[in-house]
């Protein structure tokens, strides 16, 4: 199979997994939901968004590879509402009543982090049965952060809007409670701390849902609802009006020239065997404006490509691995380049295809640790926004040096071709085998070659599957897996978002060991 | 010699006369109503005088004000155009008495011919064949008859009556219409001839006793007894018949001592007999076709004759080829010709070879009273423009005119354009076997040009894609329109089209190619379910690729064939024009505001206009079909009847009130 065919097969697989998230609770529950005259979570989002505007869904594969449904019963993403970039969080009530499981929380936390860091107004489209009770032990204690996040966003001056489409009870009642603006829907919203059975148990009082938490009650009596909508369309219409009146920064897009080289070719560049190096310039020139890339230090440390470009009109500095391995020269070049970007206040884009820092006596003696540390120091203390895209391998400390998840890039996406782990599966299995062989030798045991082969294969397989993007995406280690042809668009949206905040390059770093 | 001419008219006829004046060096004066202040004819004149008000009775029918305007501007002649005061003998006399040159026949001739009854009596004595008629309507003893206004032209007030029972209402209604149009409510009845053809002869007479004819015109294609397609020569007229018709026309002119430009109208029976109908003592709208085939500027000739000039020829010039005129009107043929009003947001007639004057060579001539931006109101005639094609043969002229009209962009108003094209392309028309009943026998001509399901769908898709392109351009971003990283729902838009609401769905893939599309009808009761991006049934949609999509033009590749759709958006309305036809789509709001519904039994205005008579009062019991009130628009009277038995609970309007379409008139309980 050609590299392209492999990539297309992976994209088909990705599409199928996305489709699982889109399907929500499946036809039975979506039909039931519709029959109640209600809109699906994504339909609510589509109506909320400006027509024809892009929508970047975040963490769509959350909970992939876990016991919970793909998508984690919530939809999060960034889109334009009345020209304002907003972060949208919508419960999917067709998945177990929209109940939150541990992955739902992780996904919402990630969304809230993005909102806070990038100062995006948050619109919650609420319809959730609360916590998924069987997994309460993993939800109850961390789950409180959802409400804390909302009020902290508010304190930071970031507007929060809750459109309550259905149940928002018990703890869920604090979502409207903690939001700046609350819209409830006639005979649909239900917001109370305790429902009729609980009230009956607690106080013996006979009550009904409307009087405990109906929209009309909250609009007329309790004052929890600021706006009373007659139906879902009306609620979304009101939500849009609320955003319009926020006096919030309008999206200020920039005009730009598309790449001269065809983005379609991005499917051909990454070899299906990641051991074969590829030239990242072929990628860069297909995602940056006009395919114009001004390379920095092209003749020095040429296993790492660095340079300047613009993407959808925004200036960026790019760091991209060329031949996988980071040597001392590459590390020093990276550290210098990152400092330059901080001097000029330019966001950085990291395109990962690294197997890590070079090992071996010659390199250790040459100070690879010192130089790698300098690169990690620069990345860690850089204060311009970072974007990371895993296009190939991202192994070992190279993942850190290239601004992996732990280094808090503003956004991190993976191509279907990516792999990430402490090292490659074969290397890891080999290392384990060598360690076992040494242990056997020092214990004077005979080394069982047959079981070693079996063990090696098993380890390789496990590591391979755990280093694949879907596995990592399911664990929220990225913000989503993207079609390589969408890279420019995704990064363009991220750059739009990033530029909603003021940022200033670092004035100082940790001590560089020279 | 005329130095400065006032045209006591408006619209295209005023522009037509001004065009000749400019060519021959005569200065021009326009009079205009308040509503016409910015009309092209008022702007084009060297001088313009406003006649305050809008109703014709306050403006274009006010001879005294018009003569005063002529005095004020130093005009030395008045041309009445056609319609309004063109056949008003008192006005002609007043103009002459005021010492101004009257461009038209002498007042006494007008007054003889102005009364169709007197004219018929006179001409019967001169052995011109006339149809039997009754001036006392109670003596009508055969049916069907045609009720006609005794004065005026243009078919206003005309009604066919098939029996004695309906004669009374027809007569009184004709009287009212005649009065409102011409200020005279005299009507008479005349034998109605089925399948009759309408043939008229152009007369030109100088003040020195010379009379010539410029051939005939056929005006058999009519609606509401008003001409809307006219041609010359008539396919029904043989050289021998032409000779007889022209001799009769000359006899008519000479019997009354006619001078100037005029038209003698005849009715031609299927058997080939002809009868005098009436004489129009003025220039006629359809003079354009005669100008095409003769090459002679009739207005120029008319001015020359008014100046006392002697006819420079003794017989008609040779007729060259065939010319057909179509009257493009703001009206809805499918809704009983209801006049349409509104702002003409675009008006583009392609390949026009000339305007207002004879063409040098075969081609298309456009005489238009309006332009893009013109507002068509309720006060005046609904005709927007006359489009004339001149070609060597009749079928070539018809083909050229149909193609020109089909490619005309006329946005903002309903028009009869599609009907004109369908008639001009209809085998019955092309055969030449036409008569006044053609529209009744060929109802298929009322279908819109854009009528195939697929063509309509493609236009809807083009509207949606153009809308997306416009929003994208407006957003100023280089991010792709409607991009999604997770394919879930398509982009949808709901339009209200000619056949009710439709939902258009489309999804573009990462490369911007059309991955999916559909157009489906939406139940108006379930509008809130539309536009949710659910995939409709798309099995029968052809494969379409988007070649290009811009706000003003969408190019589609439909199963290998390229189709270009022009898109013009005004507010929420998209106008789509392609070779397949045109359609206007009104984008419905995504979030309709919950609005108060009309109370049951509410009667609303079917068109904008002025309330004429109000015949009922609150509390009155009415029967189904009973006339409740009338609306006057475009000089026509539109009745509003009770839809069912009931009691009038509310009457919201008073006579004279101006109402918009949809305005509440009354409630019947």
Description:
The complex is a heterodimer of chains A (514) and B (669). Chain A has 21 helices and 16 strands. By secondary structure, chain A is of the alpha/beta class. Chain A folds into three domains: 242 residues, Alpha-Beta Complex (2-enoyl-CoA Hydratase, Chain A, domain 1), CATH 3.90.226; 174 residues, Alpha-Beta Complex (2-enoyl-CoA Hydratase, Chain A, domain 1); 45 residues. By secondary structure, chain B is of the alpha+beta class. Chain B contains 15 helices and 40 strands. The longest helix of chain B has 23 residues. In chain B, 52% of the residues are buried.
Largest sheet of chain A: 7 strands, mixed
Q: Report the principal-axis shape of chain A.
A: globular
Shape of chain B: globular
Strand order of the largest sheet of chain B: 14-13-10-11-12-15-23-21-20
Oligomer: heterodimer
CATH class of the largest domain in chain B: Alpha Beta
Describe the protein's topology.
The complex is a heterodimer of chains A (about 525) and B (about 675).
Chain A: H1 3-23, H2 27-35, H3 41-48, E1 55-58, E2 74-81, E3 84-91, H4 102-118, E4 122-128, H5 140-143, H6 145-155, E5 160-168, H7 174-178, E6 181-185, H8 196-203, H9 209-213, H10 215-222, E7 227-229, H11 232-244, H12 266-269, H13 281-284, E8 294-296, E9 304-311, E10 314-321, E11 325-326, H14 328-344, E12 348-354, E13 356-357, H15 361-365, H16 368-381, E14 386-395, H17 396-401, E15 411-414, E16 419-421, H18 425-443, H19 449-466, H20 469-474, H21 487-498
Parallel strand pairs in A: 3-4, 4-5, 5-6, 6-7, 10-12, 11-13, 12-14, 14-15, 14-16
Antiparallel strand pairs in A: 1-2, 2-3, 8-9, 9-10
Helix pairs in contact in A: 4-6, 14-16, 18-19
Chain B: E1 4-7, H1 11-24, E2 27-33, H2 40-44, E3 47-51, H3 63-73, E4 77-79, H4 89-97, E5 101-102, H5 107-114, H6 116-125, E6 133-134, E7 145-149, E8 159-161, H7 167-182, E9 187-191, E10 197-205, E11 211-223, E12 226-232, H8 239-256, E13 260-268, E14 274-280, H9 287-294, H10 298-306, E15 322-329, E16 331-332, E17 338-339, E18 342-343, E19 346-348, E20 352-355, E21 363-368, E22 375-376, E23 383-391, H11 394-406, E24 409-411, H12 417-425, H13 427-430, H14 438-441, H15 453-475, E25 491-497, E26 500-508, E27 514-521, E28 544-550, E29 553-558, E30 561-570, E31 573-578, E32 581-587, E33 602-604, E34 609-614, E35 621-622, E36 627-633, E37 636-641, E38 646-651, E39 658-659, E40 664-668
Parallel strand pairs in B: 1-2, 1-4, 2-3, 4-5, 20-21
Antiparallel strand pairs in B: 6-9, 7-8, 7-9, 10-11, 10-13, 11-12, 12-15, 13-14, 15-23, 16-17, 18-22, 19-24, 21-23, 25-26, 25-32, 26-27, 28-29, 29-30, 30-31, 31-32, 33-40, 34-36, 34-39, 35-38, 36-37, 38-40
Helix pairs in contact in B: 4-5, 11-12
